[in-house]
Amino acid sequence: MSNLHQASRQWANRPADERFKDLPDLKQAVLDRRNISYEGDIKVNTFKVEPQGETVVLNAYGKKLDLTHWSFGQLCRFGNAPSAYLRTLPANLVADNLNYSVPKNKEIAKVLLAYNGGAEVRAFTSTTYGRIWDIDVVKKVMGVCETNPSWHNPPAMAVNGSENAGLYASDRDVFMFLVDEDHKLKVVNNNGKENELSRGFFVWNSEVGKASFGLMTFLYNYVCGNHIVWGAQDVKEIRIRHSKNAPLTAFGEVIPKLKQYVTSSIKEEEQALKKAVEYRPVKDRDGMVDWLTKNGFNKAIAESSITYAEEKEGDATSLWNIVQGITYLAREKTHIDNRLTLERQAGKLLNYVSR
pTM of this prediction? Predict the structure, then answer.
């Protein structure tokens, strides 16, 4: 088992105006943003940057466009210019630097604009960028959760002037953390040890190129007041890059998986876990090392995972125990990417009892 910190980082860092009390509240915010957003293609070498007070604006086809913090960084990349450094310069020097380098770029960019009194550039992306609108993601998640009203965003301690937690959106992204704590699964390992687990999931997206579209489902022991998910097990993650077919994949493949997860009965989940507890792919330690290496783990990780399973779960011959051993080992990884990679590998082993 492991602890998940993704929701806790959101809870700790989001300002009050990016926090929402429930899914309808979140839906209205991203809908309002969608209603003033428009996209189109534009030639990069037609841009002209002009100083305006302490900042700069973009002059494109005779129209002056404000830049967000995010879109300014994307504009700088068109000219291979360091945005962090340019932010320290006076506006006239920023304009001079960008007007020297950006017009040399022959690309055509997809621009996302927002009209709310004035015009503002929300994002520059490639023309092949497959935009998944945040409002569409939120609507899909709402539709899925309406089939099981037990799903909700868990409460948390107030932070940044707000008690709202678990549901977040900014001009760059959206993040949703929902749980079902009314229906708990009972898992009994080979030693008769019983554990009660709840179900939860994260969904995230960015329509401006900040992040992928993603879904993470998991079982867990409890969620604390700062939204650390403790004792997470059976962690499964899907990430989709915003390529041309991203919307089709997100809504044709990923959201149906979420619906299946949310609507599945506790008995179905318990039966699946029972199969993992009872399934023994090999009879001894040496056999387990060979089995794990055949499933993509190197020998050192295989042996360490077996040791953890023996120490924490009593033995390392059942599929459930060895998965727990791998996730115990993953918690030692200091780099989150390495930890998540190992946890995803462990989760894939459970496919042996779902085939």
Answer: 0.81
